[in-house]
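Project standup — Tuesday

K.O.: blocked on the structure for the chain from last sprint. Re-posting the sequence here as requested.
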Amino acid sequence: MPTFTLASFNICSAHFREGHYTEDNLARLAAQINQSTADVVCLQEVDRGAARSDRVDMPAYLAEHTELKHHYFIKIRDFQGGEYGTAILSRYPITEAKTINYPVQIATQGTSCGYAVLDVEGTPVTVFNTHLSVENEESNTETLCCLGDILATLRREGKSFLCCGDFNTSPKKVARFIPWVSLAHNGLTTYADRSIDHILYFGQITVANTRTLNTQKDKVTDHNMVLTEVTV
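H.V.: unblocked you, prediction finished:
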């Protein structure tokens, strides 16, 4: 059975270190991804073609400067002449990918998720990525429920999946609203003193050695990377 390392990583649009984008910040993020030796990385707070980030295509840049040559961008919204969202980087080929907009009524942030189907040594593996609303508790709950409805479709079809993201809420709340998924960790500190970045899984999947990499230490981002070993 294939085993690979999966990571969830909020990169703060390469803005955190100096309060604005620099290519050096983005290069440091690439170095952190290389240091992690992860095979698949789900990124949050990603710019593509936005003015504030010198029009850089962040997923393409990070794919070029790491071993994760396959990538898929998941748009949340138009932003400064470009786009803002999340992305999936992969060592393995992507055979299918899709962005899904949440049918929100109140939330204006964190309004989509996306997935990529990876060919992991001949085994198809579905990986979702999302960044839920941080506006207020009600908006966060709305986006969490939207994600749960989408994942429940795969559950009804008997399909296995992984789901990474910055959920902007605790493992306890995730478990309350999507009680049938498993969480790779139940309280690792990922942002300040909180646990808000998670990896969920369902079906014929096992995880082990879930941990964080201290990616906050040089101030390139304000989140720690979360990693786990996945067997499918």
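K.O.: great, moving the ticket to review. The chain has one domain: 3-231. The chain has a mean pLDDT of 97.
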